# Entry
Amino acid sequence: MAFPSQGVAPMSGGFSPAPQGGPPPGAQNCMNEFLPLRKEAERRAEVIKGLGKRKAPASEACKAIGAFAQAELKMIKYVRTNAKRCGIPEQAVEQMAGGHKNTAQMQAKVCNVAAQQQRGPAGPSLSEALGASTALPEAAPTRRGGGSTFDTINGNVLAR
# Structure
């Protein structure tokens, strides 16, 4: 079977571009305003990742998560305020708000751990309450006198 020499018959509207609403007017302004907020939040998220990798103390992580939460709130506020003007779907706004709830929960947990670490133990330890010494007893080497598994009351069964 050979291809037609004139090419293929034109398709009625098959490859015409689909009609799109396109970006709303001023979308570039929206991006220019939103981008620094997003970059700040991303930068603070990277700080948190770095703290996790180096196993930083909870107090340091608490501060970093708090700073990230503030950056996240600025983004959410901008998106909520400018959603209609910038053509941001409501689903994106709700998704960002849901992500912030998770951030707030994580911040509460980490900051609670940091507060507990700063306070130290809640009260005296059990050994202190009982008046026992916290020092370990000295380990003195003990020497067992030549017994084995096969020893009985009458001596070693295998030695007979």
